[in-house]
Every structure is written in C-alpha cells, then in structure tokens.
Automatic annotation (TrEMBL):
This is Tetratricopeptide (TPR) repeat. TPR repeats lie at residues 586-619. It comes from Asanoa hainanensis. The lineage of its organism: Bacteria, Bacillati, Actinomycetota, Actinomycetes, Micromonosporales. Residues 127-261 form the AAA+ ATPase domain. Keywords: TPR repeat. InterPro entries: AAA+_ATPase (IPR003593), P-loop_NTPase (IPR027417), TPR-like_helical_dom_sf (IPR011990), TPR_rpt (IPR019734).
Length: 749
C-alpha cells in the first residue's frame, strides 16, 4: 500500500482528514488501534480526535501512526508537518463551511507501478490546475493518473472524483459530459438535476469552487468532451488522460507518458514472473522487451502467458514472427490489437487511414513526409496533415522533426488493415513508387558527393524525385544518406525478396558503396553488396557481378576479414580481365593492393598498386590516379621509404584539390599527416591532421573525423601532451565504433 504523504498539507483540517484516511486504509478498528497504542490513546479519545478539525496533540498523532504501522521515516515527516502547523496555530483559521459529502471515487491504486518514478515526482511537484497525460494505448496513463491521485488525496480534503470517459473504448460509446456532470453533482450532495450541459457545468463549478479536490477524467476522447467537466476553483487538481494529444484543450501542464525503458521493462517482467526466471532467460527477456516496445500492456500480457507453461524463449520467438505477433499479445480481456483498432477506427475519414495502412506496406525504419507523399502519390501538404493526425493518435511516432516511424506492433496491425482494405495492386504500387524515388534520390546524393566517379546510375537515377535537390551541397547530400541508408537497405531487401527491381538493386549497391565506405557503415555496405551480387547473378550480368564483388570485398577488408576480401577481389579481377574491362581491372588492382598492404604483403601490394597506377594513367583517369598515388604513399611509408611516400601523398593531394573533392582531400590529408608523424615531422603532421578534421566536421563526415582524431591523439602523445592525446583518442573511439558484419561471403559463380 502506498503511504499517504502529508507534506502538502497546509491546514489543521487537512491534517486531520489525511490522518483519518491513514486509519481508514489500515482497516483497523478504533479498539484495535487503542490496544496497540496502550494507555496513551483510549478508543473514545481516538474517535473524538479524528472527528475534530483542530490539530491533535503530538503524542496522539505519533501513537495513531505507529499503531497503523506507518514506517518510522514517514512518522517523522508527519511530525515535521505537525510542528509547522502548530507554529501557525495562533492565527485563527476561517470558520469551516459545510461543503456536503466528501466523495472518494478513485479506483484502487495499482499495487506496483514500475519505471514511473520521474512522472510521479513531476505530478507530485505540480500545483493545482489541469494536467493532461497523453500516450499510446496500453502505455499506462490511467494507472499513473490513479496512483498520482491517491498520493495527492491527502492534500485535497475536499474529496476525489473519478470517471472513465470511454473515449478509447472498443465496446462502449463515449460518456456524455451531461451524464458525467449529473453523477458528479450527486456524489457532492447536490440533488437538483440541471437540464442542459451548460447549466450542469456551471453548477458543478460553483459547487467545487472552494474545495481542494482531485478529479480524474480518464480516457478522454476529445477536448469537447473534457471542457464542460473542468472545474475553475484554485485548489482543485484535475488529471486528464487521453491517447490523443488534444492540442485544442487548454491545460496547465502536459505530460507525455512514454513506453518503459528496457531496464524498467525487465523489472516489470521480474515482478510478474519472478526475478529468477528473468535472470535465467535474460537474452529472451531483452528480446521481448524490445519486441513489445516497452508497452506495459504488452508486457503484462507476456507476463500472464509466461506465468503458465510458456518459456520466455518461446514467447520471444513467437513475438518475432509477424504472423503470430499480435495473436501472442492477447490474453483474457487484454489485447494490444483491440487497443490499436480503437485508435484506427477513430481516425477521420480522409487521407489518414490510407496513409496509416499503405505507408506500412514497404519496409523502412523511419521516413520523412516527402517520401511518404511520393509513396502514396498524394500532395505533400495533405500527407503531412494526415501524419500529424496519426501522430496525435499515437499511431506513429516522431523520433525527430519531420521524421516518422511505426512501432513493430503498430506496423503489423497496419499491414493487417491494408490486406483487408487495399487490393494487392495498390500495395504493390506504393512499394514500387517508394523504391523508385528513394533509389533516384540516392543517385542524386552520390553524384553530389563524388562528381568525378563514374558510378552506375542508369537504373536508379531516372525517376523524378523531390527528396534531395539538384543543387544540394556536399553536406546536405551526406546528411540525406546518413538518414536514409538503413531505409535503402530494407527497401532493397524487400524488393529483392519479391524478385523485383533487380537492375536497380544491382546498381544501388555499387552507387552507394563509396559513401558507406567513407562513412564507416560496413554492415550496410556488406549487405547491399551481397544484394547487388545476387541481383547481378540473377540477371546474368558479369560486369555488374564484378562491381558488386568489389563492394562486398571492401566491406570485408574493413572488418579485417582479409582472406575473404582478397578472394572476392580475385574473382572480380578475373571477370574484369575476361571482359577486357581495363578501368575495372585497374580498380580491382587498386583494392587488391590495399588488401595485400593490410595483410602485411607489402611487395605484392606495391606491385598491384603500381600496375593500377599505370592503367589509370593510360586511361587518362586523373581522379583515380590521385587516389592510387595516395595509396602507394601508404605502402611506401610502411616500407620506411618516407620521402618517396610523402611525394606520392603530395601528388595525390594536388590532384584532389585540383578537382575540388573535399571529402577525398580530408582523407589524403590524414594519410599525409600519418606519414609525417611516422617520419618524425610532428608539427607538419599536426597541421595537416587538424585541417583534415576541420573539413570532415564541416561535411559531417564522422568516420573522417574519427580517423583524424585518432591520428591527432598519436601526434599529441608524441609531443608530450597526454591530456589532449587522451581526449582525442576517446572521441575517435566513439566515432569509429562499428558492429561486426555478421554475413557470409558469397561463393564463386
């Protein structure tokens, strides 16, 4: 049982009312309390004391609280409040007004509420007024409001009113404000029944104007439903809960009730099923909390299922299966699907239901409004309004301004509705439009980043798109790809699985590979490389296969899977030579040189790179010539031939600057600085590394920043500045962290 908190009490009358509630909640009779207190407190004295409105004697208060098993720490709080009130007792209090019955309509407080301490503290610290608690269905708004009301009851001796407005009920109509007001008035002892909602609202406000009350308006459906029920007295606290944001309702404060964090989700399952089981299946429990999205309702359902014979491992496997996910989140009268259906059916009959259904059909993690509009072939302004409606109903989330996403359970429900309403051809068209516009925007961004690179854009750059402008800066193109890279991989995987867009998937993996390599996103690079290889092979495209093999090989090399990387490059080189593709051969030799270098085979590395350089000079490919010169410089550095290495770096840097490729310039500057550092030219190295860092930061190139910072840490350490060295190394470690690839290299074929 939650202890009553006396610290908000301001009068002796409130103090006695709260003390009376302590006795009521204890369930003890006056005689039992008197026996426990001994001679200090006869039963008749207890009854008289709790019927008065004056401050009892201190020893009597202590005796009552101790007899009712109030913890000693809480007793001390009570006595501190008693002392504060006793000091002001000389000031006569106003004569009490006969305010009629004191209702206490609150439902029982939840026995435990995990992970809501911060929200409860905010509610407890707030002054009188109207609080609006909003959140998705099943997130625990009602439980939070009821518990907060119980805690506040002691500071509101005028009583507690509660009503379920049924604004989010699947099987009952929303409560009418007039009916609610008549019920409130009866509870307050008012026997008249005003005929209209306006009259009833005015009488209700007059009746409670001088009372200190707590009113809970639970499950509100609209601002119009709530407004007549709001009191205007200065001492009343009103808690309104709603799954809608109700932007048109004027309130004192708003509190967004978010899903539980992972730790609190595990704690809730431990409370429901026992900590031993949670510890024994810790990995499965973590998966369940993630798959439930931190929803207390979903976790309660899982807890109920797990209390039977089901293991957490089997429940996690079922929840991870889209076909079973929502079925697993039903037990008794608890159902995640039913709650989602209420929100969906409440949507206005315009574009919002269609956006909700069809936007869930393609695979993506989070998306902007412009991409959603292109997917639905609808005006951007209308789609933005529809997304706002979905956001207001907590059917989508907004992790960042202008970005939207579904929770897994909501996406599965939305797809169920799409299957029920939208013909397969309509769903397919939405997927194709999104893939086309996203792939085309990728081509535009890659052109901006690498204007001198002959990347394959033929199958991905033809669709008109409004996601990234033709005049986008390098930084804007980089940011767009950072936002969309996971979406691109998910969309490409979905389309490949359906056997569609194979030429575009083949070209996408190659066009985006250089950005992913520069950015250090080797997982995405590997997975898109695998898709590109598979698509090219299904198309019988040898040239495309060689390009895609190169993409995957580089990702393998970045994760030090060198043997696999070299095997892939050897396959690609054989295809290039068979096709007579000299530019492709030069690219393979360049990458093979880097692979042998990282594998410690410096002589083989130098031979491959020098052959690549010769081919690129013959082909008059100045841009690639600059890149290979820089790579040769790295090998010469490792061979200890520092002067030759510096000459090669400087030659590569000159070409890069001539062509105004600032991304490449930052990387060449870092390589030059590292050779200078190894050669003992620390001050020159410091200047070049700082310039590389400045360019990378300007372009939002995190991996470039990480490489430059890592080198700067080494340089500062050589110069004796250990503090700056540690700082640079720590920041570099954060920027350069990348998870393992976890994919298999394809076999030759």
């Amino acid at each position: 049982m939650q202890a009553l908190d006396p610290r908000g009490v301001t009068t002796a009358e409130e103090f006695v009312v709260l003390l009376r509630r302590v006795r009521d909640r204890s369930g003890l009779s006056y005689r039992t309390i008197a026996k426990r207190a001994g001679a200090v407190l006869p039963a008749s004295t207890l009854a008289t004391m709790l019927a008065r409105q004056t401050l009892p004697r201190r020893e009597l208060v202590t005796a009552v609280l101790t007899a009712c098993e109030v913890p000693p720490s809480a007793v001390r709080q009570w006595i501190a409040v008693w002392e504060r009130l006793a000091e002001g007792a000389a000031t006569p209090a106003p004569a009490p007004v006969d305010a009629g019955p004191v209702p206490f309509q609150l439902p029982p407080a939840p026995p435990v509420l995990v992970g809501r301490d911060a929200e409860l503290d905010r509610l407890a610290a707030g002054h009188a007024g109207v609080w609006l608690l909003t959140g998705a269905g099943g997130v625990g708004k009602s439980a939070l409001a009821v518990l907060a009301a119980h805690r506040a009851a002691g500071r509101h001796p005028g009583g507690c009113l509660y009503v379920d407005l049924r604004g989010a009920s699947a099987d009952a109509a929303p409560s009418e404000p007039h009916d609610v007001l008549l019920g409130f008035l009866r509870a307050l002892g008012v026997r008249t029944a005003p005929a209209t909602v306006d009259e009833a609202s005015a009488l209700f406000r007059s009746t409670v104007a001088d009372r200190a009350m707590v009113i809970v308006l639970d499950n509100a459906g609209s601002a119009a439903q709530v407004r007549p029920l709001l009191p205007s007295g200065p001492r009343t606290t009103t808690l309104v809960t709603s799954r809608w944001r109700l932007p048109d309702l004027d309130v004192t404060r708003r509190l967004a009730v978010e899903p539980l964090p992972a730790t609190a989700g595990r704690d809730l399952l431990a409370h429901l099923c026992g900590p031993e089981r949670v510890t024994a299946e810790a990995a499965a429990v973590s998966d369940i909390v993630r798959l439930c999205g931190g929803s207390p309702l979903a976790l309660r359902i899982v807890g109920a299922r797990a209390s039977g014979r089901q293991t957490f491992s089997s429940l996690a496997a079922h929840l991870d299966d889209d076909a079973r996910h929502l079925d697993e989140l039903e037990v008794g009268d608890l159902s995640v699907r039913a709650g989602l259906r209420v929100g969906y059916r409440s949507l206005p009959t315009d574009l919002a239901p269609s956006v909700f259904r069809l936007a869930a059909v393609p695979d993506w993690i989070e998306l902007g409004a412009a991409a959603c509009a292109a997917m639905l072939d609808a005006p951007a302004v209308a789609v933005e309004r529809a997304l706002d409606v979905l956001l207001d109903a907590h059917l989508v989330e907004s992790p960042a301004p202008g970005r939207f996403r579904y929770h897994d359970s909501v996406r599965i429900f939305a797809r169920e509705q799409a299957d029920a309403v939208d013909p397969p051809a309509v769903q397919l068209a939405a997927r194709e439009r999104l893939a086309a516009v996203m792939f085309s925007a990728t081509a535009s961004a890659a052109r901006t980043l690498f204007p001198h690179d002959p990347l394959p854009y033929g199958e991905i750059g033809t669709t008109a798109q409004r996601l990234i402008g033709p005049d986008a800066t390098t930084a804007q193109a980089w940011r767009w790809l950072e936002q969309e890279r996971v979406n691109l991989r998910m969309i490409a995987s979905q389309e490949y699985a359906a056997g569609r867009a194979l030429p575009a998937i083949r070209d996408l993996g190659v066009a985006v590979a250089k950005y992913l390599d520069y950015a250090g996103h080797f997982v995405d690079q590997a997975r898109l490389g695998q898709l590109a290889i598979a698509a090219a092979r299904r198309l019988g495209d040898q040239r495309g296969t060689a390009q895609a093999l190169n993409t995957l090989a580089i990702a393998m090399l970045r994760h030090e899977r060198r043997r696999e990387g070299i095997e892939l490059l050897d396959q690609a080189l054989a295809i290039r030579r068979e096709l007579g593709d000299r530019a492709g051969e030069a690219a393979c030799l360049n990458n093979l040189g880097n692979a042998h270098r990282d594998n410690g085979d410096l002589d083989d590395a130098l031979r491959c790179l020098e052959r690549s350089l010769a081919l690129r000079k013959e082909l008059s490919d100045r841009y690639k010539t600059g890149s290979t010169l820089d790579n040769i410089g790295i090998v010469l550095r490792r061979l200890g031939r520092f002067e030759e290495a510096l000459d090669h770096h400087r030659a590569g840097l000159a070409i890069t600057r001539e062509l105004d490729d600032r991304l490449r310039e930052a990387l060449v500057l870092t390589n030059l600085a590292e050779t200078e550092h190894v050669a003992g030219e620390q001050h020159q190295a410091l200047g070049h590394a700082e310039r590389a860092l400045a360019i990378s930061r300007e372009l939002h190139h995190d991996r470039g920043c990480g490489l430059a910072l890592q080198l700067l840490g080494d340089i500062h350490a050589s110069l004796g500045d250990t503090t700056r060295a540690r700082s640079c190394h720590a920041e570099a470690a954060e920027l350069l962290h990348e998870p393992a690839i976890g994919v298999e290299a394809p076999t030759a074929g």
